[in-house]
Design a protein that fits this description.
882 residues; mainly alpha; 4-stranded antiparallel beta sheet
Length: 882
């Protein structure tokens, strides 16, 4: 049947070529039209998995929390960061056709008015006490929020030190901060002093200078990067709002949309160069294997035509590629070209024997048809073993690659023979075999016992390495830390206050929140919880009383009845000189406060003598945020009781669903980037709520899902291949000789991973069951030749075909190693490593396992076995027997 198909392709060569051309052109058009890559890692898991169903249900309950871009704005001071975030959010809201929602989770009018009310009672009392202690400072500044007023406060501070009411150390930090600001002004630099930092004693938290704007853009799902245009708009608006380093600001984008777009960009990064280098290497290896330009061209055309058709079929079947299934191209090239090399090398050997092109093609079909068929079926079984798993990433890859093997097999038996017939390469001048390898064959057979003992000892010695094989279950490690979205995520994760590694628990209603929150807080791994109670505190009455008392005490200071007229430049100069003179009186010592007084006194004298423009700039630098502070304090000291009814709708929607369920956000203790910490955290929270969701749970559960999928796929592939080989080879020993070395190669690969410190992960673990299928193909060629009575297999044309096939396969797999995407690169690394050990087993372990070939024909072997004998092998066998 196979020989008949090949003979038809040779006889009707032009019909085959035209048909293949039509299929290829149609494939190009279909692939271009259907091409999509969905980089959402959540989609890699089947939605029927229970924990994914919980995630999907949560997303439906809070749709505004999906498909987000998180803009992270860092400012030199809290005021600069807050102003920039406010301007930016307001500007985004005007683009309603491109931006669906804009939300400030940490700022805005609600927080400006109710910030004190949202504190714990202890924090509130500490804050109000500090404000009361600073009313002597706030009063003069509220009355005269100018350069003159600041200088007078400095003078008052010096008097307080002299009277014993204050210590010079108390003024050290304010003096240093004022001096730094004025020096920048005098040097012509952009300057602006933070009064929030000053009143906090110079101490700020990351959340003070880092603000967030959550953006839900309109996505274009017809584009390869659905959020690309929205992201460009966001960056343009940021530039228009002067959110840049020149203005003391930095903006970074992260979140699901930004990560997905960066993921695609990383996959595409350097793709052209990588594919060019890979293609060049494959052409080189084909040239070395085939020594014929027409044959090289024929194999390349066959391979890439099959790749195009496979891509079109794959996209039609799965709809869109994912970060794992995109590797089908490398797999197809690596494995599909194997069929072409096997056929073409066998054609060369038969051409040397027969001298006629068409006769050699048909002879090649008889020679490799059976082994190619068995290898293709085994590969198909290996790839299709992924289909039943819940890991959609590899199940889709298995589907596409499996169909690709069918395409590669059919094209190798139709298009390739037709191309060879049309090109009609020149005849072979010498035998294709590598006779110098015969010595290796003889050595292995002669020392077979010691080879097997050595293999056994090495394998047994390495078993302890398999006990604690590293597995990295963090999906973020599969992404490039160099891209902005991932680098920003990794930065945020360092601080518990900004870490996205939180878990969401849904309470049945708002009334159930306190009790559920208390149960969660009792867990050893939980640091804190946030909920609707964070924004509608249940102890507001006590807090309102504390705030009202403080407001009464500070009212005279913040709302002075008399205010002096705005100062003239002369007024400012006088106040500056008076402050400088006063500071000199407390300088001259060795303490930090004394030194700060001396330094600031000198700076003030310089400012007093400088042009008026410098003093005007100094006034702006010192008082811009002072006026903001005075106004904000007035608002904070006049809150209104918060209820669910008067809570901003957007804020309420972040915590309470339309049907009344309430979200509780749970934060972990410890390093939230530590896999073990997150695993324990997720496990404990799930004891309270089995349906909880969030990144820690997704990371933990996906590791179980994916590992289970690979165990299932590996066992399925092994069973299917075993059944196929049992039916085809009929002898259990021959089946064991085919699969045994593969098991050894897999064990050696895993041992090497432990030695070199390379962990398994969600992407590269796919290499193990894949190489089981790939290795079977190489081993089948040898076993079938051995059953046919071939001696010196390493010296035969078969080894030449396998060696160069492995080189091209390794090159195709190696192209993945060059990817800028860490997950894809790790997949390529493990595939290449697995291929190395698979070849090592094929070239040395399989011959040692098999031993000398049978000396008598086997009546039970398939008819194709005899055809598998490489030309010239029978003559060598006869000579060996004699």
């Amino acid at each position: 049947m196979i020989e008949g198909l090949v003979a038809f392709s040779v006889r009707r060569r032009w019909l085959v070529l035209v048909t293949a051309a039509i299929l290829t052109v149609a494939g190009v058009a279909a692939a271009a039209h259907l091409f999509r890559i969905n980089t959402d890692v959540e989609r890699l898991i089947d939605p029927s998995v229970p924990w994914r169903q919980d995630e999907i249900a949560f997303e439906k309950a809070f749709p505004q929390r999906t498909n987000l871009v998180a803009a992270v704005i860092d400012g030199q001071t809290p005021e600069i960061a807050e102003e920039a975030a406010t301007r930016f959010a307001d500007a985004l809201k005007t683009h309603r056709s491109e931006i669906e929602t804009v939300y400030r989770p940490d700022g805005g009018p609600f927080f400006d008015r109710n910030g004190l009310l949202l504190m714990s009672q202890q924090e509130l009392e500490q804050t109000t006490q500090r404000l009361i202690e600073q009313q002597g400072l706030l009063g003069p500044l509220a009355a005269d929020p100018s350069l003159r007023g600041v200088m007078r406060v400095l003078t008052l501070g010096v008097k307080g030190v002299k009277s014993g009411d204050a210590k010079v150390e108390d003024l050290a930090q304010p003096m240093t901060q004022i001096d730094d600001t004025l020096r920048k002004v005098l040097n012509g630099e952009r300057a602006r002093m933070s009064w929030q930092t000053l009143l906090a004693g110079g101490k700020t938290q990351v959340t003070d200078t880092r603000k967030f704007v959550m953006i839900q853009p309109v996505l274009d799902y017809n584009a390869l990067e659905p959020g690309r245009e929205a992201t460009k708009l966001i960056r343009r608006i940021a530039a228009e709002q002067n959110i840049d380093s020149v203005h003391g600001l930095r903006i970074r984008l992260t979140g699901p949309v930004a990560v997905a777009d960066d993921e695609f960009a990383t996959l595409a990064d350097d793709a052209g160069l990588n594919y060019s280098l890979t293609t060049a290497a494959i052409v080189l290896f084909l040239a070395l294997a085939l020594h014929s330009a027409p044959l090289v061209v024929a194999v390349l055309i066959t391979t890439f035509a099959g790749l195009i058709v496979t891509a079109a079929l794959g996209l039609a079947m799965v709809g869109e590629l994912n970060p794992i299934s995109v590797a089908f191209a490398a797999l197809f090239v690596g494995l599909g070209i194997d069929f072409g090399i096997q056929f073409a090398v066998r054609y060369r050997a038969d051409r040397y024997e027969t001298g006629d092109c068409d006769t050699a093609i048909r002879a090649a079909a008889r020679g490799v048809g059976w082994s190619l068929t068995l290898a293709a079926v085994s590969l198909l079984a290996g790839f299709f073993a992924f289909l039943p798993t819940k890991f959609r990433g590899v199940s889709e890859l298995g589907l596409i690659a499996g169909v690709g093997m069918i395409v590669a097999y059919l094209f190798s038996l139709t298009l390739l023979p037709a191309l060879i017939a049309v090109f009609n390469p020149r005849g072979e001048k010498r035998a294709v075999e590598t006779t110098w390898m015969a010595g290796v064959d003889h050595w292995i057979v002669t020392h077979r016992k010691w080879v097997l003992i050595g293999v056994g000892l090495i394998t047994v010695a390495g078993i302890p390495l398999l006990v604690k094989l590293p597995f990295d279950s963090n999906p973020m490690h599969l992404r490039s830390p160099k891209v902005e979205s991932i680098a920003t995520y990794l930065d945020l994760i360092k601080d518990p206050a900004t870490s996205p590694n939180t878990i969401d628990v849904l309470a049945p209603d708002v009334a159930a929140v306190p009790a559920l929150s208390q149960r969660l807080l009792k867990l050893d791994t939980v640091a804190e919880v946030h909920s609707i109670d964070t924004f509608v505190p249940r102890d507001q009455d006590q807090k309102l009383a504390t705030i009202q008392e403080t407001a009464q005490l500070l009212a005279p200071a913040l709302n002075p009845s008399r205010k002096p007229p705005p100062p003239t430049d002369a007024d400012n100069v006088k106040a500056i000189r008076e402050a400088a003179a006063a500071l000199k009186t407390i300088g001259g010592g060795s303490e930090p406060g004394n030194k700060a007084a001396d330094t600031l006194s000198a700076t003030l004298e310089t400012l007093a003598s400088a042009p008026a423009e410098k003093r005007e700039a100094a006034s702006v630098a010192l008082t811009t945020d002072l006026r903001t502070l005075i106004g904000r304090l007035s608002g904070l000291l006049d809150p209104r009781k918060i209820t669910l009814d008067n809570l901003p709708k957007q804020l309420k929607a972040e915590w309470v669903t339309a049907d009344g369920r309430a979200r509780i956000e749970v934060h972990p203790k410890g390093d939230s980037n530590n896999d073990e910490v997150l695993r324990r955290f997720a496990k404990e929270v799930q004891t309270i709520d089995p349906h909880a969701t969030g990144a820690p749970i997704a990371t933990t559960e996906s590791s179980y899902t994916i590992l289970g999928a690979f165990v299932q796929a590996g066992i399925t592939a092994l069973v299917l291949i075993f059944i196929i080989l049992s039916v085809a080879l009929r002898k259990p020993w021959d089946v064991a000789m085919t699969l045994g070395p593969l098991v050894l190669a897999t064990l050696w690969t895993l041992m090497t991973l432990k030695i070199i410190g390379m962990p398994l992960n969600f992407a590269n673990i796919i290499a193990l069951p894949l190489m089981l299928a790939v290795g079977v193909a190489f081993h089948i060629y040898y076993v079938i030749a051995w059953r046919a009575g071939v001696v010196d297999m390493l010296a035969s044309s078969l080894t030449r075909a396998i060696f160069f096939s492995a080189l091209t396969t390794g090159t195709a797999f190696g192209s993945l190693m060059l990817s800028s995407h860490p997950g894809t690169a790790s997949m390529g690394e493990l595939l290449a490593l697995s291929l190395f050990f698979t070849l090592l087993a094929a070239f040395f372990v399989v011959p040692a396992f098999l031993g000398p070939p049978p000396k008598h024909p086997d009546a039970n072997r398939p008819e194709g076995d005899l055809a598998a004998v490489p030309p010239g092998a029978v003559a060598r066998e006869t000579a060996a027997v004699k």
